[in-house]
Protein backbone atom coordinates (compact mmCIF):
# COMPACT_ATOMS: atom_id res chain seq x y z
CA UNK A 1 0.00 0.00 0.00
CA UNK A 2 2.84 2.43 0.81
CA UNK A 3 4.08 2.06 -2.73
CA UNK A 4 0.88 3.09 -4.47
CA UNK A 5 0.58 5.97 -2.06
CA UNK A 6 4.00 7.20 -3.07
CA UNK A 7 3.35 6.91 -6.73
CA UNK A 8 0.27 9.04 -6.39
CA UNK A 9 2.18 11.70 -4.58
CA UNK A 10 4.74 11.77 -7.33
CA UNK A 11 2.11 12.52 -9.87
CA UNK A 12 1.23 16.22 -9.69
CA UNK A 13 -2.06 15.90 -11.58
CA UNK A 14 -3.64 13.83 -8.88
CA UNK A 15 -3.86 16.31 -6.06
CA UNK A 16 -7.59 15.90 -5.65
CA UNK A 17 -7.50 12.21 -5.23
CA UNK A 18 -4.52 12.39 -3.03
CA UNK A 19 -6.45 14.43 -0.53
CA UNK A 20 -9.25 11.93 -0.44
CA UNK A 21 -6.70 9.23 -0.03
CA UNK A 22 -5.03 10.92 2.91
CA UNK A 23 -8.35 11.04 4.67
CA UNK A 24 -9.13 7.42 4.23
CA UNK A 25 -5.67 5.92 4.22
CA UNK A 26 -5.67 4.67 7.76
CA UNK A 27 -9.08 3.07 7.52
CA UNK A 28 -9.78 1.33 4.28
CA UNK A 29 -7.28 -1.17 2.91
CA UNK A 30 -8.90 -1.46 -0.54
CA UNK A 31 -8.40 2.14 -1.29
CA UNK A 32 -6.31 1.58 -4.38
CA UNK A 33 -9.26 -0.03 -6.06
CA UNK A 34 -11.55 2.83 -5.16
CA UNK A 35 -9.12 5.31 -6.62
CA UNK A 36 -8.80 3.30 -9.76
CA UNK A 37 -12.54 3.32 -10.23
CA UNK A 38 -12.97 7.03 -9.55
CA UNK A 39 -10.21 7.65 -12.01
CA UNK A 40 -11.49 5.73 -14.93
CA UNK A 41 -14.96 7.17 -14.54
CA UNK A 42 -13.81 10.73 -14.10
CA UNK A 43 -11.46 10.78 -17.09
CA UNK A 44 -13.20 8.84 -19.84
CA UNK A 45 -16.65 9.66 -21.03
CA UNK A 46 -17.82 6.06 -21.36
CA UNK A 47 -17.28 3.40 -18.76
CA UNK A 48 -14.23 1.38 -19.68
CA UNK A 49 -12.49 -1.44 -17.92
CA UNK A 50 -8.74 -0.72 -17.75
CA UNK A 51 -7.91 -4.36 -17.03
CA UNK A 52 -9.63 -5.60 -20.17
CA UNK A 53 -8.21 -2.59 -21.96
CA UNK A 54 -4.70 -3.66 -21.08
CA UNK A 55 -5.21 -7.06 -22.71
CA UNK A 56 -6.66 -5.55 -25.86
CA UNK A 57 -3.91 -2.94 -25.96
CA UNK A 58 -1.19 -5.54 -25.54
CA UNK A 59 -2.49 -7.74 -28.32
CA UNK A 60 -3.33 -5.00 -30.84
CA UNK A 61 -1.52 -1.78 -30.17
CA UNK A 62 1.61 -2.56 -28.14
CA UNK A 63 3.72 -3.45 -31.16
CA UNK A 64 3.67 0.22 -32.16
CA UNK A 65 2.60 2.15 -29.06
CA UNK A 66 3.87 2.37 -25.53
CA UNK A 67 2.09 4.41 -22.89
CA UNK A 68 5.09 6.53 -22.00
CA UNK A 69 7.55 6.16 -24.85
CA UNK A 70 7.56 7.02 -28.49
CA UNK A 71 7.80 3.83 -30.52
CA UNK A 72 6.61 3.34 -34.10
CA UNK A 73 3.67 5.50 -33.06
CA UNK A 74 3.28 8.20 -30.40
CA UNK A 75 3.06 7.60 -26.64
CA UNK A 76 -0.55 7.07 -25.75
CA UNK A 77 -0.88 7.94 -22.07
CA UNK A 78 -3.96 10.14 -21.64
CA UNK A 79 -4.46 10.46 -25.42
CA UNK A 80 -8.10 11.11 -25.07
CA UNK A 81 -7.71 14.09 -22.75
CA UNK A 82 -4.61 15.26 -24.62
CA UNK A 83 -6.34 15.33 -27.99
CA UNK A 84 -9.38 16.96 -26.39
CA UNK A 85 -7.28 19.71 -24.82
CA UNK A 86 -4.79 20.34 -27.60
CA UNK A 87 -6.78 19.67 -30.74
CA UNK A 88 -10.38 19.77 -29.64
CA UNK A 89 -10.91 16.28 -31.04
CA UNK A 90 -13.49 14.11 -29.38
CA UNK A 91 -14.17 10.44 -28.96
CA UNK A 92 -15.75 10.09 -32.41
CA UNK A 93 -12.49 11.20 -34.05
CA UNK A 94 -10.63 8.53 -32.07
CA UNK A 95 -13.17 5.90 -33.09
CA UNK A 96 -12.71 6.77 -36.73
CA UNK A 97 -8.95 6.93 -36.45
CA UNK A 98 -8.57 3.61 -34.71
CA UNK A 99 -11.00 1.74 -36.96
CA UNK A 100 -9.57 3.14 -40.17
CA UNK A 101 -6.82 5.73 -39.95
CA UNK A 102 -6.05 5.55 -43.66
CA UNK A 103 -9.64 6.48 -44.47
CA UNK A 104 -9.51 9.45 -42.12
CA UNK A 105 -6.27 10.66 -43.66
CA UNK A 106 -7.71 10.36 -47.17
CA UNK A 107 -10.81 12.29 -46.12
CA UNK A 108 -8.51 15.26 -45.60
CA UNK A 109 -8.83 15.56 -41.83
CA UNK A 110 -6.25 18.18 -40.80
CA UNK A 111 -4.91 16.65 -37.60
CA UNK A 112 -4.88 13.13 -39.04
CA UNK A 113 -2.67 14.32 -41.88
CA UNK A 114 -0.49 16.26 -39.47
CA UNK A 115 0.40 13.23 -37.30
CA UNK A 116 0.69 11.02 -40.35
CA UNK A 117 3.34 13.30 -41.78
CA UNK A 118 4.98 13.74 -38.42
CA UNK A 119 5.57 9.99 -38.38
CA UNK A 120 6.94 10.00 -41.94
CA UNK A 121 3.87 8.40 -43.39
CA UNK A 122 3.96 5.22 -41.34
CA UNK A 123 0.57 3.60 -41.74
CA UNK A 124 -1.26 2.55 -38.61
CA UNK A 125 -3.08 -0.76 -38.99
CA UNK A 126 -6.86 -0.52 -39.29
CA UNK A 127 -8.91 -2.15 -36.52
CA UNK A 128 -12.46 -2.38 -37.92
CA UNK A 129 -13.17 -5.32 -35.61
CA UNK A 130 -12.95 -3.27 -32.40
CA UNK A 131 -16.31 -2.59 -30.73
CA UNK A 132 -17.13 0.72 -29.03
CA UNK A 133 -16.71 -1.03 -25.68
CA UNK A 134 -13.24 -2.30 -26.67
CA UNK A 135 -12.10 1.21 -27.54
CA UNK A 136 -13.49 2.52 -24.26
CA UNK A 137 -11.52 -0.18 -22.43
CA UNK A 138 -8.31 0.79 -24.23
CA UNK A 139 -8.83 4.46 -23.48
CA UNK A 140 -9.52 3.67 -19.83
CA UNK A 141 -6.24 1.79 -19.75
CA UNK A 142 -4.35 4.68 -21.34
CA UNK A 143 -5.88 7.04 -18.79
CA UNK A 144 -4.42 5.14 -15.85
CA UNK A 145 -1.75 7.09 -13.95
CA UNK A 146 1.86 6.10 -14.51
CA UNK A 147 3.45 4.06 -11.76
CA UNK A 148 6.98 3.66 -13.03
CA UNK A 149 8.74 5.73 -10.34
CA UNK A 150 8.37 3.00 -7.75
CA UNK A 151 10.01 0.43 -9.97
CA UNK A 152 13.01 2.61 -10.67
CA UNK A 153 13.49 3.27 -6.97
CA UNK A 154 13.48 -0.41 -6.23
CA UNK A 155 16.10 -1.20 -8.84
CA UNK A 156 18.51 1.52 -7.79
CA UNK A 157 18.21 0.67 -4.13
CA UNK A 158 18.83 -2.96 -4.96
CA UNK A 159 21.98 -1.99 -6.83
CA UNK A 160 23.24 0.09 -3.91
CA UNK A 161 22.64 -2.79 -1.55
CA UNK A 162 24.68 -5.24 -3.54
CA UNK A 163 27.68 -2.93 -3.87
CA UNK A 164 27.57 -2.36 -0.12
CA UNK A 165 27.66 -6.12 0.27
CA UNK A 166 30.89 -6.19 -1.75
CA UNK A 167 32.54 -3.60 0.46
CA UNK A 168 31.55 -5.27 3.69
CA UNK A 169 32.88 -8.66 2.59
CA UNK A 170 36.19 -7.03 1.69
CA UNK A 171 36.27 -5.42 5.13
CA UNK A 172 35.73 -8.78 6.80
CA UNK A 173 38.53 -10.35 4.78
CA UNK A 174 40.91 -7.53 5.68
CA UNK A 175 40.07 -7.83 9.37
CA UNK A 176 40.68 -11.57 9.25
CA UNK A 177 44.09 -11.07 7.62
CA UNK A 178 45.14 -8.59 10.31
CA UNK A 179 43.92 -10.98 12.99
CA UNK A 180 46.06 -13.78 11.61
CA UNK A 181 49.12 -11.57 11.37
CA UNK A 182 48.68 -10.55 15.01
CA UNK A 183 48.30 -14.18 16.05
CA UNK A 184 51.51 -15.15 14.26
CA UNK A 185 53.47 -12.32 15.90
CA UNK A 186 52.08 -13.28 19.29
CA UNK A 187 53.19 -16.87 18.81
CA UNK A 188 56.72 -15.86 17.90
CA UNK A 189 56.95 -13.56 20.91
CA UNK A 190 55.70 -16.28 23.26
CA UNK A 191 58.28 -18.68 21.88
CA UNK A 192 61.09 -16.19 22.35
CA UNK A 193 60.19 -15.42 25.96
CA UNK A 194 59.87 -19.12 26.77
CA UNK A 195 63.31 -19.74 25.31
CA UNK A 196 64.75 -16.94 27.40
CA UNK A 197 63.20 -18.39 30.54
CA UNK A 198 64.69 -21.76 29.73
CA UNK A 199 68.16 -20.25 29.25
CA UNK A 200 68.02 -18.35 32.52
CA UNK A 201 66.94 -21.41 34.44
CA UNK A 202 69.76 -23.37 32.79
CA UNK A 203 67.50 -26.03 31.38
CA UNK A 204 68.87 -27.65 28.21
CA UNK A 205 66.27 -28.38 25.61
CA UNK A 206 66.00 -32.18 25.31
CA UNK A 207 68.51 -33.46 22.74
CA UNK A 208 67.92 -36.36 20.41
CA UNK A 209 70.48 -39.16 20.71
CA UNK A 210 73.10 -39.02 17.99
CA UNK A 211 72.25 -42.17 16.08
CA UNK A 212 72.35 -42.20 12.25
CA UNK A 213 69.90 -39.63 10.80
CA UNK A 214 67.29 -41.15 8.56
CA UNK A 215 68.40 -39.46 5.35
CA UNK A 216 71.94 -40.74 5.76
CA UNK A 217 70.63 -44.25 6.16
CA UNK A 218 68.60 -43.68 3.01
CA UNK A 219 71.56 -42.49 0.95
CA UNK A 220 73.58 -45.52 1.99
CA UNK A 221 70.88 -47.91 0.75
CA UNK A 222 71.53 -47.80 -3.00
CA UNK A 223 68.57 -49.97 -3.96
CA UNK A 224 66.15 -47.58 -2.29
CA UNK A 225 67.78 -44.64 -4.04
CA UNK A 226 67.38 -46.34 -7.42
CA UNK A 227 63.70 -47.06 -6.80
CA UNK A 228 62.97 -43.51 -5.76
CA UNK A 229 64.83 -42.04 -8.69
CA UNK A 230 62.83 -44.20 -11.08
CA UNK A 231 59.66 -43.27 -9.27
CA UNK A 232 60.43 -39.56 -9.54
CA UNK A 233 61.34 -39.86 -13.21
CA UNK A 234 58.13 -41.67 -14.01
CA UNK A 235 56.03 -39.24 -12.04
CA UNK A 236 57.60 -36.21 -13.66
CA UNK A 237 57.31 -37.81 -17.10
CA UNK A 238 53.63 -38.28 -16.38
CA UNK A 239 53.18 -34.65 -15.46
CA UNK A 240 55.30 -33.37 -18.32
CA UNK A 241 53.33 -35.49 -20.77
CA UNK A 242 50.08 -34.23 -19.32
CA UNK A 243 51.31 -30.67 -19.55
CA UNK A 244 52.56 -31.02 -23.11
CA UNK A 245 49.41 -32.66 -24.40
CA UNK A 246 47.16 -29.89 -23.08
CA UNK A 247 49.14 -27.24 -24.93
CA UNK A 248 46.90 -25.77 -27.56
CA UNK A 249 43.77 -27.24 -26.00
CA UNK A 250 41.41 -24.52 -24.87
CA UNK A 251 38.81 -26.51 -22.98
CA UNK A 252 37.14 -24.22 -20.48
CA UNK A 253 38.24 -21.03 -22.27
CA UNK A 254 35.85 -18.32 -21.15
CA UNK A 255 36.82 -14.83 -22.34
CA UNK A 256 35.06 -11.66 -21.23
CA UNK A 257 32.94 -10.53 -24.19
CA UNK A 258 32.46 -6.87 -25.17
CA UNK A 259 28.71 -7.17 -24.50
CA UNK A 260 27.67 -9.39 -21.61
CA UNK A 261 25.39 -11.53 -23.74
CA UNK A 262 23.78 -14.40 -21.82
CA UNK A 263 22.82 -17.66 -23.53
CA UNK A 264 21.03 -18.64 -20.34
CA UNK A 265 18.53 -15.82 -20.78
CA UNK A 266 18.10 -16.09 -24.55
CA UNK A 267 18.35 -19.78 -25.37
CA UNK A 268 17.39 -21.09 -21.92
CA UNK A 269 14.74 -18.97 -20.22
CA UNK A 270 13.20 -17.58 -23.39
CA UNK A 271 13.71 -20.70 -25.48
CA UNK A 272 15.04 -19.01 -28.61
CA UNK A 273 16.24 -21.62 -31.09
CA UNK A 274 20.02 -21.73 -31.61
CA UNK A 275 19.56 -21.44 -35.35
CA UNK A 276 17.52 -18.26 -35.04
CA UNK A 277 20.80 -16.50 -34.35
CA UNK A 278 23.38 -19.00 -35.58
CA UNK A 279 21.52 -19.18 -38.83
CA UNK A 280 24.31 -20.25 -41.12
CA UNK A 281 24.86 -23.48 -39.18
CA UNK A 282 22.13 -24.87 -41.42
CA UNK A 283 23.91 -24.14 -44.65
CA UNK A 284 27.62 -23.59 -44.19
CA UNK A 285 30.88 -24.49 -42.55
CA UNK A 286 30.48 -21.72 -40.01
CA UNK A 287 27.76 -21.28 -37.43
CA UNK A 288 28.50 -17.63 -37.43
CA UNK A 289 27.88 -14.96 -34.83
CA UNK A 290 24.60 -13.12 -35.50
CA UNK A 291 24.87 -9.68 -37.05
CA UNK A 292 23.35 -6.89 -34.99
CA UNK A 293 20.25 -6.50 -37.14
CA UNK A 294 19.20 -9.90 -35.84
CA UNK A 295 19.50 -8.67 -32.27
CA UNK A 296 17.40 -5.66 -33.23
CA UNK A 297 14.56 -7.90 -34.44
CA UNK A 298 13.75 -8.28 -30.76
CA UNK A 299 15.59 -5.44 -29.09
CA UNK A 300 13.75 -2.76 -31.02
CA UNK A 301 10.92 -3.69 -28.66
CA UNK A 302 12.92 -5.01 -25.67
CA UNK A 303 14.73 -1.88 -24.53
CA UNK A 304 14.88 -3.00 -20.93
CA UNK A 305 14.84 -6.36 -19.20
CA UNK A 306 12.09 -7.23 -16.77
CA UNK A 307 12.67 -6.12 -13.19
CA UNK A 308 13.14 -9.68 -11.90
CA UNK A 309 15.75 -10.31 -14.60
CA UNK A 310 17.57 -7.08 -13.74
CA UNK A 311 17.50 -7.94 -10.04
CA UNK A 312 18.82 -11.44 -10.69
CA UNK A 313 21.64 -10.06 -12.82
CA UNK A 314 22.65 -7.60 -10.12
CA UNK A 315 22.52 -10.13 -7.31
CA UNK A 316 23.97 -13.23 -8.91
CA UNK A 317 26.28 -12.01 -11.63
CA UNK A 318 26.92 -8.38 -10.76
CA UNK A 319 25.92 -7.27 -14.26
CA UNK A 320 23.64 -4.39 -15.14
CA UNK A 321 21.68 -5.99 -17.98
CA UNK A 322 20.03 -2.75 -19.06
CA UNK A 323 23.42 -1.11 -19.50
CA UNK A 324 24.43 -4.05 -21.70
CA UNK A 325 21.42 -3.46 -23.94
CA UNK A 326 22.49 0.20 -24.20
CA UNK A 327 25.88 -1.04 -25.45
CA UNK A 328 24.04 -2.92 -28.17
CA UNK A 329 22.13 0.24 -29.13
CA UNK A 330 25.36 2.22 -29.25
CA UNK A 331 27.04 -0.33 -31.50
CA UNK A 332 24.15 -0.57 -33.91
CA UNK A 333 23.49 3.16 -33.82
CA UNK A 334 19.90 3.07 -32.60
CA UNK A 335 18.44 6.28 -31.27
CA UNK A 336 15.89 5.26 -28.68
CA UNK A 337 14.18 8.62 -28.35
CA UNK A 338 13.68 9.04 -32.07
CA UNK A 339 13.24 5.34 -32.82
CA UNK A 340 15.54 5.58 -35.83
CA UNK A 341 19.01 4.42 -36.79
CA UNK A 342 21.57 7.19 -36.67
CA UNK A 343 23.83 5.50 -39.20
CA UNK A 344 26.81 5.75 -36.83
CA UNK A 345 27.80 2.16 -36.13
CA UNK A 346 30.76 0.37 -34.68
CA UNK A 347 31.45 -3.36 -34.92
CA UNK A 348 31.14 -5.41 -31.74
CA UNK A 349 34.43 -7.23 -31.31
CA UNK A 350 33.21 -10.59 -30.06
CA UNK A 351 36.10 -12.79 -28.99
CA UNK A 352 36.15 -16.10 -30.79
CA UNK A 353 36.16 -19.08 -28.44
CA UNK A 354 35.98 -22.30 -30.46
CA UNK A 355 38.74 -22.30 -33.01
CA UNK A 356 40.35 -25.29 -34.67
CA UNK A 357 43.87 -24.92 -36.03
CA UNK A 358 44.04 -23.97 -39.66
CA UNK A 359 45.08 -27.46 -40.77
CA UNK A 360 41.85 -29.13 -39.59
CA UNK A 361 38.56 -28.74 -41.44
CA UNK A 362 35.24 -28.85 -39.64
CA UNK A 363 31.85 -28.21 -41.20
CA UNK A 364 28.72 -27.37 -39.21
CA UNK A 365 26.07 -28.09 -41.80
CA UNK A 366 27.44 -31.63 -42.24
CA UNK A 367 27.02 -32.32 -38.55
CA UNK A 368 23.91 -30.27 -37.79
CA UNK A 369 21.81 -30.74 -40.92
CA UNK A 370 23.05 -34.00 -42.42
CA UNK A 371 23.98 -35.98 -39.33
CA UNK A 372 21.33 -34.32 -37.15
CA UNK A 373 23.67 -33.92 -34.16
CA UNK A 374 22.37 -31.54 -31.48
CA UNK A 375 24.46 -28.45 -30.81
CA UNK A 376 24.63 -29.41 -27.14
CA UNK A 377 26.45 -32.68 -27.90
CA UNK A 378 29.52 -30.69 -28.85
CA UNK A 379 28.99 -27.34 -27.13
CA UNK A 380 27.65 -28.56 -23.79
CA UNK A 381 24.77 -27.10 -21.77
CA UNK A 382 24.70 -23.81 -23.65
CA UNK A 383 21.21 -22.94 -22.43
CA UNK A 384 22.58 -22.77 -18.88
CA UNK A 385 25.67 -20.69 -19.64
CA UNK A 386 25.60 -17.13 -18.39
CA UNK A 387 28.98 -16.67 -20.06
CA UNK A 388 29.91 -18.83 -23.03
CA UNK A 389 32.85 -21.20 -22.55
CA UNK A 390 34.38 -24.05 -24.50
CA UNK A 391 32.91 -27.30 -23.25
CA UNK A 392 34.69 -29.90 -25.43
CA UNK A 393 38.46 -30.25 -25.84
CA UNK A 394 38.19 -30.12 -29.69
CA UNK A 395 41.16 -32.47 -30.02
CA UNK A 396 41.54 -34.96 -32.80
CA UNK A 397 40.86 -37.82 -30.41
CA UNK A 398 37.56 -36.24 -29.52
CA UNK A 399 36.46 -36.02 -33.17
CA UNK A 400 37.60 -39.57 -33.90
CA UNK A 401 35.90 -41.06 -30.84
CA UNK A 402 32.59 -39.63 -31.84
CA UNK A 403 32.98 -40.79 -35.44
CA UNK A 404 33.60 -44.31 -34.13
CA UNK A 405 30.52 -44.26 -31.91
CA UNK A 406 27.93 -42.31 -33.86
CA UNK A 407 25.72 -43.90 -36.46
CA UNK A 408 25.13 -42.14 -39.73
CA UNK A 409 21.65 -40.73 -40.09
CA UNK A 410 20.47 -42.17 -43.39
CA UNK A 411 16.74 -41.78 -42.99
CA UNK A 412 15.10 -39.72 -45.68
CA UNK A 413 18.44 -39.06 -47.33
CA UNK A 414 18.25 -40.40 -50.86
CA UNK A 415 21.84 -39.39 -51.44
CA UNK A 416 23.02 -42.12 -49.06
CA UNK A 417 20.85 -45.07 -50.09
CA UNK A 418 23.26 -46.69 -52.52
CA UNK A 419 26.52 -46.20 -50.65
CA UNK A 420 24.86 -47.15 -47.40
CA UNK A 421 23.61 -50.46 -48.84
CA UNK A 422 27.00 -51.32 -50.30
CA UNK A 423 28.97 -50.38 -47.22
CA UNK A 424 26.69 -52.16 -44.77
CA UNK A 425 27.02 -55.31 -46.92
CA UNK A 426 30.78 -54.93 -46.87
CA UNK A 427 30.98 -54.54 -43.10
CA UNK A 428 28.06 -56.89 -42.40
CA UNK A 429 26.22 -54.42 -40.14
CA UNK A 430 22.77 -52.80 -40.12
CA UNK A 431 23.88 -49.42 -38.99
CA UNK A 432 26.99 -47.67 -40.27
CA UNK A 433 29.08 -45.48 -38.05
CA UNK A 434 30.64 -42.29 -39.36
CA UNK A 435 34.03 -44.04 -39.10
CA UNK A 436 32.94 -46.84 -41.41
CA UNK A 437 31.79 -44.25 -43.92
CA UNK A 438 35.30 -42.88 -44.05
CA UNK A 439 35.24 -40.52 -41.11
CA UNK A 440 38.73 -41.67 -40.05
CA UNK A 441 40.50 -40.88 -43.31
CA UNK A 442 43.12 -38.24 -42.72
CA UNK A 443 42.18 -36.40 -45.89
CA UNK A 444 38.61 -35.79 -44.75
CA UNK A 445 39.83 -33.44 -42.05
CA UNK A 446 43.35 -32.48 -43.14
CA UNK A 447 43.97 -31.11 -46.57
CA UNK B 1 61.91 -23.44 10.97
CA UNK B 2 63.81 -23.92 7.77
CA UNK B 3 61.62 -26.76 6.55
CA UNK B 4 58.49 -24.73 7.27
CA UNK B 5 59.97 -21.96 5.20
CA UNK B 6 60.65 -24.36 2.33
CA UNK B 7 57.15 -25.74 2.42
CA UNK B 8 55.73 -22.24 2.33
CA UNK B 9 57.86 -21.35 -0.69
CA UNK B 10 56.80 -24.47 -2.55
CA UNK B 11 53.16 -23.82 -1.74
CA UNK B 12 53.42 -20.26 -2.91
CA UNK B 13 55.03 -21.22 -6.20
CA UNK B 14 52.34 -23.84 -6.71
CA UNK B 15 49.59 -21.37 -5.90
CA UNK B 16 50.95 -18.79 -8.28
CA UNK B 17 51.24 -21.37 -11.06
CA UNK B 18 47.68 -22.52 -10.50
CA UNK B 19 46.28 -19.01 -10.30
CA UNK B 20 48.07 -18.13 -13.53
CA UNK B 21 45.93 -20.63 -15.36
CA UNK B 22 43.13 -18.26 -16.18
CA UNK B 23 40.15 -19.29 -18.24
CA UNK B 24 39.78 -15.86 -19.67
CA UNK B 25 42.96 -16.30 -21.69
CA UNK B 26 43.52 -18.90 -24.42
CA UNK B 27 46.09 -21.60 -23.75
CA UNK B 28 49.66 -21.57 -25.08
CA UNK B 29 50.20 -22.93 -28.55
CA UNK B 30 53.21 -24.94 -29.65
CA UNK B 31 54.69 -23.46 -32.81
CA UNK B 32 51.53 -21.77 -34.01
CA UNK B 33 52.74 -21.36 -37.62
CA UNK B 34 50.26 -23.89 -38.96
CA UNK B 35 47.53 -23.01 -36.47
CA UNK B 36 47.05 -19.43 -37.58
CA UNK B 37 45.50 -19.05 -41.01
CA UNK B 38 47.34 -17.18 -43.73
CA UNK B 39 44.18 -16.38 -45.68
CA UNK B 40 41.30 -14.37 -44.27
CA UNK B 41 38.96 -16.21 -41.93
CA UNK B 42 35.30 -15.33 -41.48
CA UNK B 43 34.80 -12.26 -39.25
CA UNK B 44 38.50 -11.56 -39.03
CA UNK B 45 39.78 -8.04 -38.48
CA UNK B 46 41.66 -6.60 -41.40
CA UNK B 47 43.11 -3.23 -42.31
CA UNK B 48 42.22 -3.72 -45.94
CA UNK B 49 38.58 -2.80 -45.38
CA UNK B 50 36.78 0.24 -44.00
CA UNK B 51 36.07 -0.16 -40.29
CA UNK B 52 38.56 -3.01 -40.07
CA UNK B 53 35.83 -5.58 -40.65
CA UNK B 54 36.61 -8.38 -43.03
CA UNK B 55 32.94 -9.33 -43.52
CA UNK B 56 31.60 -6.89 -46.11
CA UNK B 57 28.31 -6.57 -47.94
CA UNK B 58 28.37 -7.51 -51.62
CA UNK B 59 28.54 -4.59 -54.02
CA UNK B 60 25.30 -2.79 -54.68
CA UNK B 61 23.22 -4.55 -57.30
CA UNK B 62 25.20 -7.79 -57.37
CA UNK B 63 23.18 -10.96 -57.91
CA UNK B 64 24.24 -14.20 -56.20
CA UNK B 65 24.63 -17.29 -58.33
CA UNK B 66 21.86 -19.83 -58.24
CA UNK B 67 18.99 -17.94 -59.82
CA UNK B 68 18.04 -15.71 -56.90
CA UNK B 69 16.65 -12.67 -58.65
CA UNK B 70 16.56 -9.30 -56.90
CA UNK B 71 13.28 -8.29 -55.29
CA UNK B 72 11.95 -5.34 -57.23
CA UNK B 73 9.17 -4.16 -54.96
CA UNK B 74 10.08 -1.22 -52.74
CA UNK B 75 10.01 -0.99 -48.96
CA UNK B 76 7.18 1.54 -48.75
CA UNK B 77 3.48 1.50 -47.99
CA UNK B 78 2.77 1.52 -51.71
CA UNK B 79 5.20 -1.32 -52.26
CA UNK B 80 3.46 -3.25 -49.52
CA UNK B 81 0.04 -2.68 -51.11
CA UNK B 82 1.41 -3.65 -54.53
CA UNK B 83 2.86 -6.87 -53.14
CA UNK B 84 -0.31 -7.59 -51.25
CA UNK B 85 -2.46 -7.42 -54.34
CA UNK B 86 -0.21 -8.78 -57.06
CA UNK B 87 2.81 -10.77 -55.82
CA UNK B 88 2.41 -14.53 -56.31
CA UNK B 89 4.41 -17.49 -55.10
CA UNK B 90 6.67 -19.04 -57.76
CA UNK B 91 6.41 -22.47 -56.10
CA UNK B 92 3.98 -24.99 -57.53
CA UNK B 93 2.41 -27.72 -55.44
CA UNK B 94 5.17 -30.27 -56.16
CA UNK B 95 7.86 -27.95 -54.89
CA UNK B 96 6.23 -27.37 -51.53
CA UNK B 97 8.10 -29.10 -48.73
CA UNK B 98 5.79 -28.86 -45.75
CA UNK B 99 8.18 -30.56 -43.30
CA UNK B 100 11.10 -28.23 -43.98
CA UNK B 101 8.85 -25.18 -44.06
CA UNK B 102 7.47 -26.15 -40.66
CA UNK B 103 10.96 -26.48 -39.20
CA UNK B 104 11.99 -23.10 -40.59
CA UNK B 105 8.81 -21.50 -39.31
CA UNK B 106 9.34 -22.90 -35.81
CA UNK B 107 12.91 -21.60 -35.71
CA UNK B 108 12.36 -18.09 -37.04
CA UNK B 109 8.72 -17.14 -36.50
CA UNK B 110 7.30 -19.45 -33.82
CA UNK B 111 9.15 -17.68 -31.02
CA UNK B 112 6.85 -14.65 -31.46
CA UNK B 113 3.90 -15.78 -33.58
CA UNK B 114 3.43 -19.15 -31.85
CA UNK B 115 3.60 -22.59 -33.44
CA UNK B 116 -0.03 -22.25 -34.49
CA UNK B 117 0.29 -18.69 -35.73
CA UNK B 118 -2.16 -17.33 -33.16
CA UNK B 119 0.23 -14.60 -32.03
CA UNK B 120 1.03 -16.36 -28.75
CA UNK B 121 4.65 -17.46 -28.99
CA UNK B 122 6.93 -17.99 -25.99
CA UNK B 123 8.14 -14.39 -25.96
CA UNK B 124 4.57 -13.09 -26.04
CA UNK B 125 3.48 -15.43 -23.24
CA UNK B 126 6.41 -14.22 -21.17
CA UNK B 127 5.37 -10.62 -21.98
CA UNK B 128 8.73 -9.72 -23.50
CA UNK B 129 7.29 -8.71 -26.86
CA UNK B 130 3.74 -7.48 -27.23
CA UNK B 131 1.36 -6.80 -30.04
CA UNK B 132 2.12 -9.79 -32.23
CA UNK B 133 -0.97 -10.29 -34.40
CA UNK B 134 -2.73 -13.56 -35.14
CA UNK B 135 -2.57 -14.49 -38.81
CA UNK B 136 -6.35 -14.51 -39.12
CA UNK B 137 -6.55 -10.85 -38.01
CA UNK B 138 -9.36 -9.39 -40.10
CA UNK B 139 -7.96 -5.85 -40.22
CA UNK B 140 -4.71 -7.11 -41.74
CA UNK B 141 -6.16 -9.66 -44.16
CA UNK B 142 -2.70 -10.93 -45.10
CA UNK B 143 -2.06 -12.48 -48.52
CA UNK B 144 0.91 -14.41 -49.88
CA UNK B 145 2.34 -11.23 -51.37
CA UNK B 146 2.03 -9.25 -48.16
CA UNK B 147 3.59 -12.06 -46.12
CA UNK B 148 6.56 -12.21 -48.49
CA UNK B 149 6.95 -8.43 -48.32
CA UNK B 150 6.80 -8.60 -44.51
CA UNK B 151 9.45 -11.32 -44.31
CA UNK B 152 11.66 -9.50 -46.79
CA UNK B 153 11.55 -5.99 -45.33
CA UNK B 154 9.90 -6.44 -41.94
CA UNK B 155 7.02 -4.27 -40.84
CA UNK B 156 7.15 -1.71 -38.02
CA UNK B 157 8.13 -3.67 -34.89
CA UNK B 158 8.90 -6.84 -36.81
CA UNK B 159 12.35 -7.05 -38.36
CA UNK B 160 13.45 -8.36 -41.73
CA UNK B 161 14.23 -12.05 -42.12
CA UNK B 162 15.76 -11.73 -45.56
CA UNK B 163 19.25 -12.54 -44.35
CA UNK B 164 18.25 -15.68 -42.45
CA UNK B 165 16.08 -17.25 -45.15
CA UNK B 166 16.89 -17.45 -48.85
CA UNK B 167 14.35 -16.78 -51.56
CA UNK B 168 13.08 -20.34 -51.86
CA UNK B 169 12.87 -20.77 -48.08
CA UNK B 170 10.93 -17.54 -47.74
CA UNK B 171 8.29 -18.78 -50.17
CA UNK B 172 8.13 -22.10 -48.32
CA UNK B 173 7.46 -20.22 -45.09
CA UNK B 174 4.86 -18.01 -46.80
CA UNK B 175 3.04 -21.10 -47.87
CA UNK B 176 3.20 -22.53 -44.35
CA UNK B 177 1.82 -19.28 -42.89
CA UNK B 178 -1.11 -19.44 -45.29
CA UNK B 179 -1.83 -22.97 -44.09
CA UNK B 180 -1.75 -21.83 -40.47
CA UNK B 181 -4.06 -18.97 -41.37
CA UNK B 182 -6.51 -21.35 -42.99
CA UNK B 183 -6.40 -23.59 -39.90
CA UNK B 184 -7.05 -20.61 -37.60
CA UNK B 185 -9.99 -19.46 -39.66
CA UNK B 186 -11.67 -22.84 -39.49
From TrEMBL, chain B:
Stored InterPro entries: Cyt_c-like_dom (IPR009056), Cyt_c-like_dom_sf (IPR036909)
Domain Cytochrome c: 96-181
Keyword Metal-binding: yes
Pfam family, one: Cytochrome_CBB3
Keyword tags: Heme, Iron, Metal-binding, Signal
Secretion signal, residue range per the UniProt entry: 1-21
PANTHER family documented for this protein: LIPOPROTEIN-RELATED, QUINOL:CYTOCHROME C OXIDOREDUCTASE MEMBRANE PROTEIN
Protein name: C-type cytochrome
